[in-house]
Design a protein that fits this description.
Strand content: 35-45%
Helix content: 10-25%
Strand order of the largest sheet: 7-1-4-5-6-8
Distance between the termini: 20 Å
Number of strands: 8
Length: 234
């Protein structure tokens, strides 16, 4: 039994360490100098094929009746955040199982009892098992995100759609907050003042979080995260 208990304790400690490492990775993943969220810069134009004496230059031309909208890699576009979500979920599960087992006396060589240790002992018996499980959950969540963030165009697709990505960091006295936005937009959805609503971003990734003392106070402790996570076997 001692060896089995040691194996169980070792398994629980290993699961705890894995859970802690996973939580630490998620929490510390945000970084202000993350190269994956660095702005995109336009490609350097090749002037060897241009005629400096020409009146029209397609690289920098601006039509008279065309708005100045983002359409090239490195161009800046403003995202208007208008996110509002409400979710509610209820679940009620109840399972019951009852089993009865009756074993009558066994007849052996005409006798209904079999002797054990010099006496007669009956093999008749009754076993009853009753199992029940009941779970009830009620979850509600509401989010509201308003504001603006300017991002850059990272890729132009053959059909004209633009892949955008960018972040905004705000340093406060007790920490910092950040907003990250990425996705795909259509040039037709960009307004004349070079803005687009966040609800018109396809494959949108919008993240809002913080780091520092205030964020750590609002974070659940590592022991509570372990016992409330799926790693806890009970």
């Amino acid at each position: 039994m001692g060896r089995i208990n040691q194996h169980i304790i070792s398994l629980l400690v290993s699961m705890l360490l894995i859970n802690l490492l996973g939580c630490a990775t998620v929490y510390n993943s945000a970084s202000m100098n993350d190269p994956n969220w660095a702005p995109a810069f336009p490609k350097v134009a090749d002037n060897s094929q241009t005629n400096p004496g020409a009146i029209f230059n397609p690289g920098s031309a601006q039509m008279l009746f065309q708005d100045k909208k983002a359409h090239r890699i490195g161009d800046i576009i403003t995202i208007v955040l208008t996110e509002s979500t409400n979710a509610s979920k209820n679940a009620d599960t109840e399972l019951d199982k009852e089993s009865n087992l009756n074993l009558s006396e066994v007849s052996l060589l005409g006798n209904t009892t079999v002797g054990f240790s010099g006496g007669n002992a009956s093999l008749a018996g009754t076993a009853t098992t009753d199992r029940s499980f009941k779970a009830e959950t009620d979850s509600k969540q509401s989010n509201n995100l308003q504001g603006t963030i300017s991002v850059t165009v990272h890729q132009v697709y053959p059909n004209g759609n633009l892949a955008i990505k960018g972040e905004k960091w705000i340093a406060l006295n007790q920490g910092s907050e950040f907003i990250r936005v990425a996705g795909i937009i259509r040039p037709e959805d960009i307004s004349k003042d070079n803005q687009i609503a966040s609800t018109k971003i396809a494959n949108a990734y919008i993240s809002y979080g913080g780091k520092g003392a205030l964020a750590e106070v609002n974070e659940e402790g590592w022991a509570s995260r372990f016992f409330n996570s799926g790693w806890w076997p009970f």
